[in-house]
Design a protein that fits this description.
heterodimer; A: Rossmann fold; 2 domains; 5-stranded mixed sheet; B: alpha/beta; Rossmann fold; globular
C-alpha cells in the first residue's frame, strides 16, 4: 500500500462509518484528487459526500468550518499548502478563534488536509513548507504524518478530535510503499515517537525529514555514531517530554526542518530544549533548515536549498567530539 | 390589508418596541463607552434598526444567524438578553461570550447566534457551511447571514454567493447597505453600486428594499425566507439603510457632510413607524419607561457581573473534553 492509499483508506473508512463525514475540495471528485488521493471515492460515495468545489479556498474552508459547527465532520482538502494562504483568514480568524471567542460555546471539529513541501522542481509558489508556520497558531493542531500507519491513523485520530486539525502531507511521500499494520486504527495525535534508537545524538525531525534522517543515521552508524531519530508527528502541540527524554540520554540534538530557519518550528524546538534540557546538553542545539530563499526551479539549486542526507551526516559529524 | 386593525397595531407596537429598545440600548452603550465601562472597538446600530427588526420577524427559533461586528441590534432582536450582551461588553463572565469576545463577538448557542465577526466578509463562508450541514441532514431551516456593503467588495462575498448558488443552499443573505465601508462611500468602492445586481449575476434570487421602513423589510424578509425554506436555494436582500452615528467610537467623520446625515435622519425608521401607528403620547411615554427599565436592568446585570479568574486564561483554546 502507498502513503496515498493509506490516506484514501482512512477517508473511506471514516465516510463509511459516520454519515457526518464528507470530503470537499478542488478536484477531489471527478478528477480524482490532484494527487489522486481521493481517486475512486466519488464512484463509491457519490457527489453529496465527495464534493468538488470551485477554486474558492476561502469559501470552501469557511464552509467546512460552518458545516463542522452545524454538526458535520467535514474533511476539507486544500490542493496544496501554497493555496492555503488564500484561506488563511478562515483558518486563523475563524477556525482557530471561534471556540475561544464564543466563551467555549462552539467547537469546530474540522479536518483540513493539504499537500506540502518542496523537492519536485515546482519553484517558488508551489514548494512551500508552511506547517511550522501554522504551528504558531493557538486553537488548531498541526499534524505531519511520515509513515503509512500515520497517514492512515492520524487522519482517523484527527476526525475524533473536537477541534480544528490541519494535516500536512508531504507530496513526495504519496508514492511511498509500505505495509499498513494489521492493527492500524485511529492513532494518537499529540505524541512524538522514536523511529530509530541511538545513544550519541538525537535527530529531531518530521515528515520527509524522517526518511532523510533515517538514511543519514545508517550512514553515521558505519562511522560508529549512533543517532536517535525522533519523528515529531505533530508540530502543535509539540511533545516536549519526548524531546527532553531523548536529549537527556544522547546529550546532543540536531533539528532537521525543511521550513525556513528564521522564526521557524526548529527555533521553537531549540528554545524549548534550552529551557528544559540545557544542563543535559554537551553541545549547542543545532539546526539544519531550508535555505532562506524562494524555492528555485533548477534541480541542483533546489537540492541545495533543502536538507539532504549528506548535509545531515556532515552536520552531525561537526557536532561530535573529535575521535581518538 | 387583510390583517385586522387591532392585530396589526399590536404587531407594529411590538416592532416599535424592538427598534426603540435597540436605539436606547445603543445610546446607553455610547455613554458607557465614554465612561470607560465598555472598551475596545464598538460599532453602534443607530439608524439601522429597521433592518434587523424586520428580518428577525421572518426567522424561526431553529434558524441560524451569522452576524457582523455591528451586531448589538442583531443580538437583541434575536432574543439574547440585554444583560448578557451588556455584561459581554463589560468583559464579565456572565456575558454571552464569557467576556472573551466583547462588542464585536457576541455568540449564543441557545438562539443559534453564531457570532459577530470582525473580519469584513469573514462570516459569509460560514453561512454556506451551516446551510450545507442543514441540507445534508435534511433539516428545513434557514441560515441568515448579515454583512455590509463593504463586504460585497471582498472576494469572500463572491466566492460565497457563487458556492451557495451552485449548491442551492438555504441561506438568506442580508446586505445592510449603509452606504459607507467605514469611511469610503459606496460609489468610491463599487463600480456597480446596485449591489443586488451583483448577487443576481450569480443566478440567485435577489432584491432590494428600503431599509428605513421596518414593515417593508419584514415583508421582503418573509418573501425571502419562504423562498429559501421551500428549497429554492439562496436569496439575497439588500437593505438600503444609513447609520446616524460614527463608524466606531474612534471616527471623526471627516468623510461625510453633516447635512447628509441630517437628510437621512428625516427618514429615521422609528419616528416613521410612530407616525404610522399614531399612538397616544402616554402610550409612547409608557413604552419609553418600560424600555428604560429594560436597559437599566441590563446595565445592573453587567455591573453585578464578575470577572473570570485569570487562571482560566488558556481555557477554550482547545475543547475541555478529551477526544471522543
Amino acid at each position: 500500500m502507498t502513503f496515498r492509499e493509506a490516506i484514501r483508506e482512512a477517508m473511506r473508512q471514516a465516510i463509511k462509518a459516520d454519515d457526518r463525514v464528507f470530503l470537499m475540495g478542488e478536484d477531489v471528485g471527478r478528477y480524482g484528487g490532484c494527487f489522486a488521493v481521493s481517486k475512486g471515492l466519488l464512484a463509491e460515495f457519490g457527489p453529496e459526500r465527495i464534493r468538488d468545489t470551485p477554486l474558492s479556498e476561502s469559501a470552501f474552508v469557511g464552509a467546512g468550518i460552518g458545516a463542522a459547527m452545524g454538526g458535520m465532520r467535514p474533511i476539507v482538502e486544500i490542493m496544496t499548502s501554497n493555496f492555503s494562504l488564500l484561506a488563511l483568514d478562515q483558518i486563523m480568524n475563524n477556525a482557530a478563534t471561534i471556540l475561544h471567542m464564543s466563551g467555549g460555546q462552539f467547537n469546530v471539529p474540522l479536518v483540513i488536509r493539504m499537500a506540502t513541501g518542496g523537492g519536485r522542481q515546482l519553484a517558488a509558489q508551489h514548494s512551500h513548507t508552511l506547517e511550522g508556520w501554522y504551528a504558531h497558531i493557538p486553537g488548531i493542531k498541526v499534524l505531519t504524518p511520515a509513515t503509512i500507519d500515520d497517514g492512515y491513523g492520524m487522519l482517523l485520530g484527527a476526525l475524533k478530535d473536537p477541534d480544528p486539525v490541519l494535516i500536512f502531507e508531504n507530496a513526495l511521500l504519496y508514492n511511498m510503499e509500505g505495509e499498513l499494520s494489521p492493527n492500524a486504527g485511529a492513532a494518537g495525535i499529540d505524541r512524538a515517537c522514536i523511529r530509530r534508537r541511538g545513544r550519541d545524538i538525537t535527530l529531531i525531525t518530521y515528515s520527509m525529514g524522517v526518511w532523510k534522517s533515517l538514511e543519514a543515521a545508517e550512514k553515521l552508524a558505519k562511522k560508529g555514531i549512533e543517532a536517535e531519530v525522533i519523528d515529531l508527528r505533530t508540530l502543535r502541540p509539540l511533545d516536549d517530554g519526548a524531546l527532553v527524554e531523548s536529549v537527556s540520554r544522547t546529550h546532543r540534538a540536531l533539528i532537521i526542518d525543511e521550513g525556513w530557519r528564521s522564526g521557524g518550528i526548529s527555533a521553537e524546538i531549540s528554545a524549548r530544549l534550552m529551557e528544559q534540557a540545557f544542563y543535559e546538553l554537551d553541545a549547542p542545539v543545532a539546526r539544519l533548515c531550508g535555505a532562506e530563499v524562494p524555492m528555485p526551479y533548477a534541480a541542483h539549486m533546489e537540492r541545495a536549498a533543502l536538507p539532504q542526507v549528506e548535509t545531515i551526516t556532515e552536520a552531525v559529524e561537526r557536532m561530535m567530539p573529535a575521535h581518538g | 390589508m387583510s390583517e385586522p386593525t387591532n392585530v396589526n397595531r399590536a404587531h407594529e407596537m411590538h416592532l416599535l418596541h424592538q427598534m426603540l429598545y435597540i436605539r436606547r440600548f445603543e445610546e446607553k452603550c455610547a455613554e458607557l463607552y465614554s465612561r470607560e465601562k465598555i472598551r475596545g472597538f464598538m460599532h453602534l446600530y443607530i439608524g439601522e434598526e429597521a433592518v434587523c427588526v424586520g428580518v428577525m420577524e421572518a426567522l424561526r427559533p431553529e434558524d441560524g444567524i451569522v452576524s457582523t461586528y455591528r451586531e448589538h441590534g442583531h443580538a437583541l432582536s434575536r432574543g439574547i438578553s440585554g444583560g448578557a450582551v451588556m455584561a459581554e461588553m463589560f468583559g464579565k463572565q456572565e456575558g454571552c461570550s464569557r467576556g472573551r469576545g466583547g462588542s464585536m463577538h457576541l455568540f449564543d448557542a441557545k438562539t443559534r447566534f453564531y457570532g459577530g465577526n470582525a473580519i469584513v466578509g469573514g462570516g459569509l463562508p460560514l453561512s454556506v457551511g451551516f446551510a450545507l450541514a442543514d441540507k445534508m441532514r435534511q433539516q428545513t431551516r434557514v441560515t441568515c447571514c448579515f454583512f455590509g456593503d463593504g463586504a460585497v467588495a471582498e472576494g469572500e462575498f463572491h466566492e460565497t454567493i457563487n458556492l451557495s448558488a451552485l449548491w442551492k443552499l438555504p441561506v438568506f443573505f442580508v446586505c445592510e447597505n449603509n452606504r459607507y465601508a467605514m469611511g469610503t462611500r459606496l460609489d468610491f468602492s463599487h463600480s456597480q453600486t446596485d449591489l443586488s445586481k451583483k448577487a443576481a449575476a450569480y443566478g440567485i434570487a435577489s432584491a432590494w428594499v428600503d431599509g428605513m421602513d421596518v414593515r417593508a423589510v419584514e415583508a421582503a424578509s418573509a418573501t425571502a425566507c419562504e423562498y429559501v425554506r421551500a428549497g429554492n436555494g439562496p436569496y439575497f436582500l439588500e437593505c438600503r439603510t444609513y447609520r446616524f452615528r460614527a463608524h466606531s467610537m474612534y471616527d471623526p467623520e471627516l468623510y461625510r457632510e453633516k447635512s447628509e446625515v441630517e437628510e437621512w435622519k428625516k427618514r429615521d425608521p422609528i419616528p416613521a413607524l410612530i407616525a404610522r401607528i399614531d399612538p397616544a403620547a402616554e402610550e409612547i411615554a409608557a413604552l419609553e419607561q418600560q424600555i428604560a427599565k429594560q436597559v437599566d436592568e441590563a446595565i445592573a446585570f453587567a455591573e453585578a457581573g464578575t470577572l473570570e479568574a485569570v487562571d482560566e486564561l488558556t481555557r477554550f483554546v482547545y475543547s475541555d473534553r478529551s477526544p471522543a
